[in-house]
Amino acid sequence: MGALLQSHTAPRKLIAGNWKMNGVGAALAEIEAMAAAAERLSCDLVLCPAFTLIERAAGLVRDTPVRIGAQDCHAQPAGAFTGDISADMLADAGASHVIIGHSERRMAYAEANEQVAAKALAAYRAGLTAIICVGETEAQRDAGRALDIVVAQLSASLPDGATAANTAIAYEPVWAIGTGRVPAEAQIADMHAAMRQHLSARFGMEGGQMRLLYGGSVKAANAADIFAVPHVDGALVGGASLKAADFLGIAAAA
Ligand SMILES: O=C(CO)COP(=O)(O)O
């Protein structure tokens, strides 16, 4: 394990914003302000607004380092799936990334690990980078099962063919999302080390380089401490990604 962990060289950090079901056209000014500052940052920025904003957002950031992502895609390339959006449609609209398996979707739509893996494959086929989410509930952590649960989720949610280029992992403890509660740094460190060990064992060098994001109540005030944890290669940010000032404050700590 030690040798595998030591072979990891830290990649440039990725700070991704998940806007969830927030924002209409007027909110694009925030993405414009983020893009205007992005050149000066030493991390990569991805903003994932609602489907309805993707094409406009992608147009706004076209000549900047900021990238645009979606929050879900369907596993099939096309067909009779009323209300769904395919990975090809996202790519066509200008997205380069897609969040898959967020706990809010796992819970609200009963998305299972196998479905998450199928959606990730669809993302790869469309040339998108998948940000695959995993995380334990509070009851699972209290029962001492957090590491086992998350590694099992990771194992079943990642398809063969995942690489450091087409996949980032977001560890988001369900109890830390939108609550203002953040795990202790040692808890994040243990989880990210366990995820790295699993990924290195399964994917070799690619698993050693895959970016591992932390998500759940990340703010400018706690970002530097979180980014200092070994194997934390960035963040997936919810509430604090809606305003440029907040999000840029996090990015400046990376
Ligand atoms: O769910 C999250 C990002 O996907 C985290 O949300 P908050 O940053 O609002 O806690």
Automatic annotation (TrEMBL):
Q: Which NCBIfam families match?
A: tim (TIGR00419)
Q: How does it assemble?
A: Homodimer.
Positions with a binding annotation for substrate: 18-20, 178, 217, 238-239
Name by which UniProt lists this protein? Triosephosphate isomerase
UniProt source species: Xaviernesmea rhizosphaerae
Query: Which Pfam families does the UniProt entry name for this protein?
Result: TIM
Q: What is the lineage of its organism?
A: Bacteria, Pseudomonadati, Pseudomonadota, Alphaproteobacteria, Hyphomicrobiales
Which family does the entry's similarity section mention?
A: Belongs to the triosephosphate isomerase family.
Q: Which HAMAP family match?
A: TIM_B
